[in-house]
Amino acid sequence: MACVYIPVQNSEEEVRVALDQLPRDASDILDILKAEQAPLDLWLIIAREYFKQGKIEQFRQILEEGSSPEIDEYYAEVRYERIAILNALGAYYTYLGKIETKNRKIETKHREKEEHFIMATQYYNKASRIDVHEPSTWVGKGQLLLAKGEVEQASSAFKIVLDADRDNVPALLGQACAEFNRGRFSDSLELYKRALQVYPDCPGAVRLGIGLCRYKLGQFEKARRAFQRALQLDPENVEALVALAIMDLHPNEASGIRKGMQKMQRAFEIYPYCAMALNYLANHFFFTGQHFLVEQLTETALAVTNHGPTKSHSYYNLARSYHSKGDYEKSGLYYMASVKEINKPHEFIFPYYGLGQVQLKLGDFRSALTNFEKVLEIYPDNCETLKSLGHIYVQLGQIEKGQEFMKKAAKIDARDAEAFTDLGELLISSDTSAALEAFKTARTLMKKGGQEVPIEVLNNIGVLHFEKEEFELAQQVFMEALGDGIWLTLLDNKVNIYAIDASASILQYKDMQLFRRLEEDGHSVELPWNKVTVLFNLARLLEQFNNTEAASILYRVILFKYPDYIDAYLRLAAISKARNNLQLSIELVNEALKVNGKYPTALSMLGDLELKNDDWVKAKETFRAASDATDGKDSYATLSLGNWNYYAALRNEKRAPKLEATHLEKAKELYTRVLIQHTSNLYAANGAGVVLAEKGHFDVSKDIFTQVQEAASGSVFVQMADVWINLAHVYFAQGNFALAVKMYQNCLRKFYHNTDAQILLYLARTHYEAEQWQDCKKTLLRAIHLAPSNYTLRFDAGVAMQKFSASTLQKTKRTADEVRSTVAELENAVRVFSQLSAGSNLHLHGFDEKKINTHVEYCKHLLEAAKVHREAAEREEQQNRQRQEAARQVALAEEARRKAEEQKKYLLEKRKQEDEQKRVRQLEENFERVKEQWKSSTSASKRRERPENDDEEGGHSEKRRRKGGKRKRKDKSSRSRYETQEEEADMMDDQDELEDEDANMNYRETTHQMDDQDDAAGENAQDLLAAAGLEDSDAEDEMAAPSSTAVRRRQALSESDDDEQPNPIRDNTDSDGEVRDDNDKPDEDAGLDDD
Fold first, then answer.
1. Among 142, 327, 570, 854, who pairs with 154 as Cys (CB 3.0-4.6 Å)?
2. Over the chain, what is the mean pLDDT?
């Protein structure tokens, strides 16, 4: 049994005090210590024993008494023990500041914590005044600074001790803790190892520090061994148990989770105030759905810890609990508190994600965007965060950016069907094609993964096909979503025997006997709730196919199983309205209002029906009720009230200008109210434009209509024919009839397939004002074809024919065809007005019988005048025809004469050209013939005269010279005549010289050929020369002699030497046939020609 001995003063006796039997009242032991003036170390031992026994008050009482001024004065020389007592008190108050008392309010806890830290600081400062260099005091100060979170100053305090004694174990442990808090895990680990080396018997807490450092460094197995060693040294070490439990939970395996939770439970049993164990237990109970335990554990954890990250986890667990229960206000507050305990988001990012979710739910999109972006910075590929950001950007109006994030999420995980589903829902309002592809991809991924495709996805696919007018595909998808059921029996016409003839009962759409009979006959009329929407959409599709009977049956199936399904009543009412059964339609809407008397859509529809039934007062009250049902937020009800005021201003009754202006102003106010709430509401803008047009502000209204038209054209969900009609009305009012006609025609074609009689009437009126009477009549005839019972159209057609006839007869010049057409139109007009006059219910159509009779009489009067004009026009036409015929005959005769002269001139010109061509050909042929004759005659003369030239060379030479002189004189006189021939001969010199030998060899043959020529050729030789331009006037006598035969030709050649005036042609050609110029060679060279 441990005990201490207090020496009795002035005696050798001692007072024995058993430490396990210390008195409950510390005053008793204090009296002994003071009376005997016991050493201060005994004071400290007894105080410490009280602390171990949990008697904290006694512990504090003894230490405070041991540090009182009296004790300080008495034990002034005892320095170490006094410092130890002061440091113990400082450590005690530091401990109180770290571990706050539970069950205290937050304000009280913070105040008490500060007070405890102040007390600890005072005691440490007092110890330092005794000995400023005492290591234990600096270690205590370091621990205090760590508890206050002043890590840098704490590290400095520990460093002061280590500089003096590098093996000081408490300082080493304190510095290791400081380095760990600074994130320097390697340095912290080295310090823990040094402490263990210096003092191997360190408590298990040192191994716990080593394990934590290795865990942070990723050395998990070594960390586990360190924690296990700490647990061996101290089986009740809560921190080691929690650390091992966390490591067991980390792999997220069933066995590990079970072991980890067992360790957490054991740690909680050992020390119920371990914040980390409390947090992990709360996390476990959160997933098991025991939220009351989560809240208790986290509140306890928050009460016992001041560690920021630990408190952040506690707040996060508490926020998650409230979040899962739908308490977004509280969860948001706790998420915010968790975030405030974190220095940087990467330390603990989950609260930011949860806070973003809550803010998104509460509509605080900007704050949610900021938090999700912080999450994305740390986890850039987190699909959930990307999808959330996509939704936020869409809500903020940044559609393209939202779609970008959604597409990125789908791209990161191409097998995430949910990502494609979210992407489709995001695109459904902006890009139906892309949305459809996204939903199809999601469906494919689900089927590949063996998952059942949700009905919602199939319904969305069907609706998108429906909006794209792909009705067959939409029907297939709807049927796939519905599967088997009673609807198949109904759609396959297997129950025709129960069908009710629509003409037999106006209450067909309210009849439910069909389905009761089916049940009586053994058919199962079951309709799961999750398929009601799909069946409703299928019925809506059948309406689009104009199969209203099948659609009504499906609507009635829905109502048979779910009588409170209001939309089915409204669709049946719409079908009845389309069949002009207003009474049944009103009854069906009232049935819907029995389910919910403040259903805005039903009230608005009832108001429309009452307005159509001309019950203006009821309609107004109904529209007001619809608006009040939504506190004025229902745009349709407000628009309907605006329309009511507009129609009230334009009623056909006797107008009151003030009342009309009041209604128009009220309508404008209501339209403006809707535009303030929804700036993109096209119908409100269209209504405002109508009011402005009625007030005469055509330019402003035209701008509004144009903008509405452009906006409506860019949306596949909006079909606004009214704005086209209104724009055409404005053009009409401004007198721009061409644009008005074009706008009416485009509206007819785009929205009504050219089958709307009312718009055709608008178009006819435009033609009428533009004085296009025939176009007006044709348009009215088209409208009459569409609405044959509309007497107004017939009356207008008669007026158009009457106006056309009157305008034609008023022309100063008109043709017989125009007059005949006028007569025909007047006859038709008389027939139309007579038919209208014969009607018995004219007043029902707004006609006045007297007015119609007036039109009949006026048309008959015009008809008589037209007949007179027709006879005159026909006579004038006959006369004009005769005059035209005579003029035509004259013109034909003149044309024939002109053509004859042109033909004659053409033939003369052609003949002249032919003669000229013939003459040219003859000249060319003659010239070629002369050339041949020249060549032949020259060759023959050479062969004949060569022997004679040999014998009489001298005499002949002299004679040639003499003759050559004569030729020279004669050539000079006829030089101009031969210039052309000489130029041609010069061009043939080279060729003649080359052919000279051939000519001599062929002399005989040439001579025979020439002898065979007839006398006519010989007699015309001179003519040929003349034609070739080679005749000579001096040689006419010689050429006159007969030369047709070879004998005469040779005789002429032989006598040429004795002739006084030789032929210039023969003189110039000599034997080689070369034509020479007199200036080319002197006379003495004439004898060299043979060479």
1. 142
2. 80
Are 1057 and 997 contained in the same domain?
A: yes
Spatial distance between the Cα atoms of 573 and 591, rounded to a whole number of angstroms: 10
CATH of the domain at 824: 1.20.58
| Of 380, 374, 326, the residue nearest 350 (C-alpha) | 374
In this predicted structure, the answer to whether residue 692 has a pLDDT above a threshold of 90 is yes
The 3-class SS string of 82-107 reads HHHHHHHHHHHHHHHHHCCCCCCCHH
Residues 845 and 990 in one domain: no
Are both 820 and 939 inside the same structural domain?
no
SS3 letters for 547-610?
Answer: CHHHHHHHHHHHHHHCCCCHHHHHHHHHHHHHCCCHHHHHHHHHHHHHHCCCCHHHHHHHHHHH
1067 lies in a domain? yes
Is the domain of 986 the same as that of 863?
A: no
Pairwise CA distance, residues 325 & 779, whole Å: 68
Measured between alpha carbons, how far is 779 from 801 in angstroms, rounded to an integer? 12
609-618, 778-787, 933-942: which has the highest mean pLDDT? 778-787
* Separation between Cα atoms, residue 27 and residue 35, nearest integer Å: 12
Highest mean pLDDT among 293-297, 345-349, 739-743, 865-869 belongs to 739-743
- Residues 938, 854, single domain; the answer is no
pTM of the predicted model, to two decimals?
Answer: 0.54
- Is the four-CA dihedral 874, 879, 883, 888 of positive or negative sign? positive
Q: How far is CA 42 from CA 21, 50, 96, 507, in A?
A: 16, 12, 24, 106
* Helix residue ranges, H only, 102-203: 106-130, 135-148, 151-164, 169-181, 185-198
Domain count, the chain: 2
- 1079 shares a domain with 987: yes
Give the CA count within 13 Å in the CB-facing half-sphere of 323. 25
Q: Which two tokens stand for residue 8?
A: 């009795």
Q: Does pLDDT of 120 surpass 70?
A: yes
873/1019 same-domain check: no
Give residue 203's pLDDT: 86
Place of tokens 């719409």: 574
Question: Cβ distance 809 to 822 under 8 Å?
Answer: yes
d(CA 289, CA 310): 22
Q: Is 1006 inside any structural domain? A: yes
Q: pLDDT, tens digit, for every residue of 450-466?
A: 888 999 999 999 999 99
Give tens-digit pLDDT for 974-1020.
Answer: 444 434 444 444 444 444 443 444 434 443 443 344 444 444 444 44
Q: For residue 416, how far is the Cα from the chain centroid?
A: 23
pLDDT over 80 at 286, yes or no: yes
Residue 573 one-letter amino acid: A
In sequence order, the 6+-apart residues with CB closer than 8 A to the CB of 668 are 642, 688, 691, 692
How much is the CA Rg of the chain, to the nearest whole Å?
A: 64
Predicted confidence at residue 840, as pLDDT, reads 54
pLDDT of residue 1064: 36
Render 419-444 in DSSP notation, one character per residue: HHHHHHHHHTTT-HHHHHHHHHHHHH
Is 308 a member of any domain?
A: no
Which pLDDT band holds residue 439 (cuts at 50, 70, 90)? Answer: very high
Give the separation between CA 487 and CA 531, rounded to whole angstroms: 11
| Domain identity same for 799 and 939 | no
Alpha-carbon gap, residue 499 to 422, rounded angstroms: 43
Q: How many CB atoms lie within 10 A of CB 888?
A: 10
Domain termination site, one of 883, 900, 915: 883
What is the residue range of 834's domain? 789-883
Considering the domain boundaries, does residue 666 fall inside one? no
Q: What pLDDT, on a 0 to 100 scale, did the predictor assign at position 940?
A: 67
CB 359, CB 328: distance < 8 Å: no
Tokens encoding 439 = 């939903």
Query: Of 883, 903, 922, at which residue does a domain stop?
Result: 883
Residues 709 and 692: their CA atoms lie apart, in Å, by 16
Cα diameter, the chain: 208
